[in-house]
Amino acid sequence: MERQMYHYATVSKALDELAEKGFTVDFNIQEGRIINSPHDFEIVKIYRYEGESDPGDEAMVFGIKSSTGEKGVFVAGLSAFTDNSAAMVLNELSIKGRKDELQSK
After folding, report:
1. pTM of the full predicted structure?
2. pLDDT, tens only, 44-94
3. Is 33 helix (H, G, I), strand (E, B) or coil?
4. Do residues 62 and 72 touch, judged by C-beta distance below 8 A?
5. Burial of residue 36, with CB atoms counted within 10 A of its CB: 0-12 exposed, 13-18 middle, 19 or more buried
6. Which of 46, 83, 86, 99 maximizes the CB count within 10 A of its CB?
7. CB within 8 A of 6, min separation 6: which ones?
8. First-to-final CA distance of the chain
């Protein structure tokens, strides 16, 4: 499956679109699941929001699917990308997925 990165004016707009597509679980409150079992998750969509005046306003919204079929979202601000965070785990999964896609072509 080829993932695309989308750019929206606001995080809320990305969340609304994902909710319409059935991504209803808030994985931010289940961050430990992502950190402890990253192989149980697949990134389906990535939305990026860039603040107009402050780079610190940057955020990413991940549309993710669990191995049990749950579809939900994880929202990560720029400061969330630390070594032991779910945001970093998802970012690494995204990079790995892109490499796998390129190798399969």
Report:
1. 0.74
2. 888 877 766 555 567 888 999 999 999 999 988 766 555 557 777 887 777
3. helix
4. no
5. exposed
6. 86
7. 14, 45, 46, 47, 48
8. 12
